[in-house]
Design brief:
mainly beta; 3 helices; 5-stranded mixed beta sheet; single chain
C-alpha cells in the first residue's frame, strides 16, 4: 500500500490499475471485489466495449473492456487480466483491466485538474491526475464509464 500523502480528514483511498502502459484509479469505496478473468458470454448487438456477461453468484454481471471504452488498444484477455467488480449507482459492473497495481491514500487537494488542452471526451472520463512517485495516474469518473441510457437499461 502506497502512502502518496499523509492521510488527514480529506484523505481518500483509491485503487490503482494498469491498462497497457497507463495507470488509472477509482475510488476504493466503489469496488466490491477483484477477481480473475472469466470468459464472458457475448451479447448480440452490444457496444464494442461490452465484452459480454458472466454469472456472479447467480447475478448477471456485464463486463466492460475498459481499454476499449477509454479508446486505448485492447488485447485478448488472459489469466493475468482481472475484473474489478464495481458499484455504479444501483448497477454492478465488471471492469476488465490488465492488473491491479496499488492502493493509494492521498489528500483531495493533491488531485491535479485535467489539462485544458484535453478533449471533452477525455474530461468526461478523467476527473483529475495524480502525481505519485514519479508516475501520473488518471482518476476515472466511474459514473461516466456507462452512458446514462445503458446504465438505466442494465
Amino acid at each position: 500500500m502506497s502512502q502518496a500523502f499523509a492521510p488527514d480528514v480529506k484523505a481518500r483511498e483509491l485503487i490503482a490499475f494498469r491498462i497497457g502502459q497507463q495507470e488509472f484509479c477509482i475510488n476504493i469505496m466503489a469496488v466490491r471485489e477483484i477477481r480473475g478473468w472469466t470468459v464472458a458470454t457475448a451479447l448480440p448487438h452490444s457496444p464494442d466495449y461490452l465484452r459480454g456477461v458472466i454469472n456472479l453468484r447467480g447475478a448477471v454481471l456485464p463486463i466492460i473492456d475498459l481499454a476499449i471504452r477509454l479508446g486505448l488498444p485492447s488485447s485478448e484477455p488472459t489469466a493475468r487480466n482481472v475484473i474489478i467488480v464495481a458499484q455504479i449507482g444501483q448497477q454492478q459492473i465488471g471492469l476488465l483491466v490488465d492488473a491491479v497495481s496499488d492502493i493509494l491514500t492521498l489528500n483531495e487537494e493533491h488531485i491535479q485538474p485535467t489539462p485544458d488542452v484535453a478533449s471533452d471526451l477525455v474530461k468526461t472520463f478523467v476527473r483529475g491526475l495524480l502525481p505519485v512517485e514519479g508516475r501520473m495516474i488518471s482518476l476515472l469518473a466511474l459514473d461516466h464509464v456507462l452512458p446514462d441510457h445503458e446504465l438505466e437499461a442494465a
